[in-house]
Amino acid sequence: MTKGSVETPDWSVIPAPTDDGAARHLTGVRLPSSSLPATDETTVNLAQLPGLVIVYAYPRTGIPGIENPAGWDLIPGARGCTPQSCSFRDHFAELKALGVKHLFGLSVQDTAYQREVVDRLHLPFPILSDEHLELTRSLRLPTFETGGMTLLKRLTLVINDGRIEHVFYPVFPPDRNASEVLAWLATRNLSLEGRLE
Fold it and tell me: E strand or H helix at 157, and its extent?
């Protein structure tokens, strides 16, 4: 196994999430002004970033050798945060080539915890922390409760000039999410080019 790689789970034995409609209201919504700490020691306000921005939200990453919460693998959509992050890492250059100005991961874990995964997986993009659920609550992002924690359900936002243009939800299996985003962006760009001709 190469440095920073991860074993892919057998998705066929992990319960898939269903579309519960909890993200249906997000398409077309303008992001609220909210400053989120990032693992690169900056503060990011997604509402103020120009151009195309991709944000993939995930429940939590574990640390090797430390047990996940009890029953974690049985929660639909909970497993797979590391494979998802690795997938976005591996497709980072392709996303940039399709016009993505910024790529971020997003979770409710604190920045110090998130830095471990950025370093371990060699992520070329920062992770944002919504530790106090400010953005989560203002956007009414889908969440679930386990082990005394409120965690984000897995979804990916395509944001254009501060407005949500498209939402991927539910996301499963997580390691294919980056490829799905790439395919959607390629189709979107072709459509935009056709309108300009």
Answer: strand 155-160
The DSSP string of 43-60 is EEEGGG--SEEEEEE-S-
For the domain with range 24-196, which CATH number is right: 3.40.30.10, 1.10.3720.10, 3.40.50.300, 2.120.10.30?
3.40.30.10
Structure tokens at 170: 């539910």
CB 101, CB 49: distance < 8 Å: yes
Which residues, listed in sequence order, are joined to residue 37 by a DSSP beta bridge? 43
Alpha carbon distance 71, 145 (integer Å) = 12
- Angle at 59 (CA atoms; ends 57, 64), nearest 5 degrees: 120
pLDDT tens for residues 174-191? 999 999 999 999 999 888
Closest CA to 174 of 60, 75, 74, 81: 81
Distance CA(188)–CA(172), nearest Å, equals 21
**In this predicted structure, what is the pLDDT of residue 107?**
98
Look up residue 118 and give its amino acid.
V
Spatial separation of the C-alpha atoms in residues 96 and 141, rounded to whole Å: 26
| pLDDT confidence of residue 91 | 98
For tokens 């639909």, name the residue: 76
Task: Kindly compute the dihedral angle of the four CA atoms of residues 192, 50, 134, 139, in this order, to the nearest 10 degrees.
Answer: -20
**Contact present, 106 and 56 (Cβ < 8 Å):** yes
What does the pLDDT read at residue 81? 92
